Input
Amino acid sequence: MVFEAAHATGNTSVAGVSWTELPGYGRTLSGVTPLPATGNGGANYTAGSGPSLSYSFYTFNKATSLTSYISPSLNANGLDRPLGFAVQIDSEAPQSIYFLPPAASGQLPKAWDGENGFVANSIVTYATQHAVNPGAHTLKVWMLEPGVVLQKFVLGK
Output
């Protein structure tokens, strides 16, 4: 099951910050990013407390993984604030995702460049594990840091 990031069934804003579509951005339909980037005084959010996107879905099969497709971006928030977001299915605890490998200040993260790197592919993928049984469900995506651009999510085995 594939969820284009722009096809959310709900978009909850917090302190004037909400997810905004960037039409034509990335390798898929579009991207979504939390704006304004300086909202919340430039501070981050904890998992489950910030602006969120919701995706209602129904599955006939069990699923165990969710792969997030994220636009590559360098971390401009400082070494103590890596780019990240959180995902949650139904009432499970949100799982925080920090998708770029750490790099020393002034250095590029591993797998950033090269012919098969994040930039060449215009995508970074990150898989999380979930226990999804057949039935109706809700995927929630939570903002942790500004600057993240999400493109799509794929739920699978």
